[in-house]
Structure prediction request, 214 residues.
Amino acid sequence: MREVEVKYSVSDPEVLLTALGQRGVSFGAPAFQDDQAFAPLGWAFGDSKLGVSFLRLRTVDGQHWFALKQPGVNAQDCLEYETEVADRGQMHEAILRMGYRATVRVAKSRRTGRFGEVSLCLDQVEGVGTFLELERMVPDETPATAVQDELAGFVTSLGVAVERTTETYDSLVRAAQTTAATVPASRESVDSPARRSLPHVADPLPSVGDDPRR
Prediction:
């Protein structure tokens, strides 16, 4: 199974919530997620992500989760494996010794909802802004772009002003960190090669998060 998603920057969350509510979508209370992203040694922002295995540690209400994501046809079509771990600090050190480095910390408040088989996440990402994610788990043989087009069509049908981005949160946070917390208006190709020499963000002590399955 693969996780296929689309992501949108949201300027007015209340308008979006109203439109989704009219479709029968309700969201739970916000919960905090604390993620540390890892990339293989030798990979840099600006390099292709396709076929590369990226790792993540997430803390959720005192529980810690390890995930591997490997983008397929694009960065928002991923093979994903996830499991709970007992000790985030120990897992962090193990990951470093697997040939990975810590890249960016992504902290966000997340509200989740569902529309049929689609999971919806309304995220307030620290230093970046508010985003709507729509995700579906699909069999490996299902064309990812067709699923993404379907998800995008649903968002368009809402009639709400949102802006689609093809970036992942680690790239958006990285861009914000290197441009005084200002995300480029186009939200396209924010991982510029010029940023490769900048120091990465180390993983501080574990903190708390929210829904582990997001």
In short: The domain at 2-189 is CATH 2.40.320.10 (Hypothetical Protein Pfu-838710-001). The radius of gyration is 17 Å. The longest helix spans residues 144-157. The helical segments are 13-21, 88-97, 144-157, 169-178.
